Fold these 2 entries.
Entry 1:
Amino acid sequence: MTLGSARSNASNQPKMVDYSGVKLNVSRETDVAAISPLDNDFDDSSPIASQLVNETKRRERLLGRKLPKPGRTRILTVANQKGGVGKTTTTVNMAAALASAGLQVLVIDIDPQGNASTALGVPHHADVDSIYDVLINDVSMAEVIAECPDIDNLYCAPATIHLAGAEIELVSLVAREQRLRRAIDEYVKFRANNGQERLDFIFIDCPPSLGLLTVNAFCAANEVMIPIQCEYYALEGLSQLLKNIEMIQKHLNSDLVVSTILLTMYDGRTNLAAHVAADVREHFPQQVLQALIPRSVRISEAPSYQQTVMTYDPSSTGALSYLEAAAELAERSIP
Ligand SMILES: Nc1ncnc2c1ncn2[C@@H]1O[C@H](COP(=O)(O)OP(=O)(O)OP(=O)(O)O)[C@@H](O)[C@H]1O
Ligand SMILES: [Mg+2]
C-alpha cells in the first residue's frame, strides 16, 4: 500500500465517546478540499485559493509515494513533560499515516489518561488487560495488544486508569526502569516465533511528566521524538527534558538519541508561531522535521469520534501535514 490510502471512515458516522452522557457539539472547519481548484471561475489570487493550490501540489507530491521499511524496528518515545503540546496527537497520527502506507506499527500507551487508546478506538476501561499489567503483573504484551478497528497494520497496547498508580508501584520492583524494554523484546521475539511480520515502528506515548513511566519509555526506545507547540513557552522546560535524556544515555540506555522534533499547532496567522518555529529550527537544525503541523479544528475533533484525523478527515490539511511528517520520518536514515 502507498501513502494517503488510509481507509476513510467516509460515512462519517461518528462513534461518539460516552462522556457520561455529555455529547460533544463539535464545530466544522471549512472543507477547503471540497472546493475544486479546477472550477471554471477559479481565482487563485485570494488567500484561500492560493492555499488550495499549495495543498494540491503537496498532495500530488505524496500521492503513490512508497515508504521504505526500516532495516530494524524503530522504537520512538514521544515525550515532552510539558502538557498538551501534541504528544498523543502526534503519536496516533504519525502511527496511522505509516500504517496506512503498509508499514507494521504498534502504539504503546503509557499515559494513565489513555488518550492514545481512545483516539485509536481501542477499549481501555478499567477491566481491560493493559500496559499496566505488562509493567506490574508480568503479563505479556501479546496478551494486551489490540488491533485498531479503522486502520490495517496498526496495533495498540492500551493504558487504563490503573496506570495512575504504577509510578509508585514500580518503585519497589526489580529492574523498575527496564520493564517496558524487556516486555517489548519478548513481544518482538513472540512475533518472530509465530511467523508474524516484523514491526517497523513502535511509538510510545508518554504522560506529561518525567517519572518512572517516562523513564521506562526512554529505556525501551532507540529514538526520542519531541513535539513542540509553536507557542511562547515552548522552549521552557526543554532543557530539563534534554538533561534527563542525557542522564538516561549516560546510565541506562546509551543507544538513545533525540532524532526528531515536530512543530505542532502552528498558527500561520501569528508572528509568534513563525518566531518560535524559526527559533527551534535554529537550535535543532538536524532534528526538526520540515513538515509542520498546523493548528486545525479537524485534528482536535477526531479523538471525540475515537479516530485519528487520517480516517476522520483524510482530505484535511491536518491529515496532509501528518502524512508529510510521517513520510519524512520514514525516509530519514536511522540514527
Ligand atoms: N494541530 C492541532 N490543532 C488543533 N488542536 C490540536 C492539535 N494538536 C493537538 N491538538 C489538541 O490539543 C490538545 C492537546 O493535544 P494532545 O493531547 O495531543 O497533547 P499531549 O501533549 O498528549 O497532552 P498531555 O500532556 O495531556 O498528554 C488536544 O485537545 C488535541 O486535540
Ligand atoms: Mg497525551
Entry 2:
Amino acid sequence: MSTTEQRVAVVTGGARGIGAATAVRLAAEGRAVAVIDLDEAACKDTVEKITAAGGRAIAVGADVSDEAQVEAAVARVVEELGAPTILVNNAGVLRDNLLFKMSASDWDTVLNVHLRGSFLMTKAVQKHMVDAGFGRVVNLSSSSALGNRGQANYSAAKAGLQGFTKSLAIELGKFGITANAVAPGFIATEMTKATADRVGMGFEEFKAAAATQIPVQRVGEPEDIANAIAFFTAEAAGFVSGQVLYVAGGPLD
Ligand SMILES: NC(=O)c1ccc[n+]([C@@H]2O[C@H](COP(=O)([O-])OP(=O)(O)OC[C@H]3O[C@@H](n4cnc5c(N)ncnc54)[C@H](O)[C@@H]3O)[C@@H](O)[C@H]2O)c1
C-alpha cells in the first residue's frame, strides 16, 4: 500500500454506543469506515459525523449472524469503499436472566450475534486482509467473560471471543494480520441503560453506584474503548497480537 492510500475499516454495531465512537475515531485517524448495523438508516448519524469532519464513510444494513447478509455487506464495502483490512467485531446484544429462567432462544440469540457474527464477519473480511498482506481484527470481549450473575449466555460468548481471538492471531499472523480483544468494564451506553431499566434503577443512580466499585471512580465512556481499539488497529501495532486488554478503570483477572 502506498502511504497515500486509505485503509478501509469495518465496524459492526456502529449505529450507536461503542461502535459509533469507534467508527468516528478510526475515521479521525484517516480510515474510510463502513458502519454496519441491523438497520442501515440507524447508521446515518455516525456516517454524518464522519463526513461532516471531512472523512469517508458508508452505512450498511446487515445482521452479522446471517451469512448471506454478511457476504452481501462485505461485497458492498469492497465496491463502495475498497477492500477492508481493519475489522472491529462490536455488534452485541444482551438477553440477561438467571440460568434457570434463561430460554434456549435467549442463549442462541446472544451466542449467534457475538460469536457466530464475529466468525462470519472475520471469515468474509480476512481474504481481503490476506491479499493486502495486512490486517487488524479487534473483537469486543467484556469483563463479563470472567463470569457475571445473570449472564451465562453473554459471559460464555465473551469468553469464547477471547479464544477465537487467540486462534485468529495464531492462524493469520503470517499474513501480516493481528487479532486482539478489548474487554470493557462498565461503559455508559444504551446497553447499560437497558440493564439499569431492567433492575428498576435510574441510569444516573446506576452509574454512580457502579463508579464506587471502579478504582478510577467513574464509569467508562464509549471513547475510552474507541481509544484502545484505535491502538490495536494502528499501523505501528503489528507486533501486538492475541492479546486481551481489559479497559475497566482498574485491574481485572
Ligand atoms: N456497554 C458496556 O458496558 C459494555 C461492556 C463490555 C462489553 N461491551 C460490548 O461492546 C459492544 C458494544 O456495546 P454497546 O454498549 O455500545 O451496545 P449498544 O447496545 O449501545 O450497541 C450495540 C449495537 O449493535 C447492534 N447490533 C445488535 N445486534 C446486531 C446484529 N445481529 N447485527 C448487526 N448489528 C447488531 C445494535 O443495533 C446496536 O447499534 C458489544 O459487543 C458489547 O457486548 C459493552
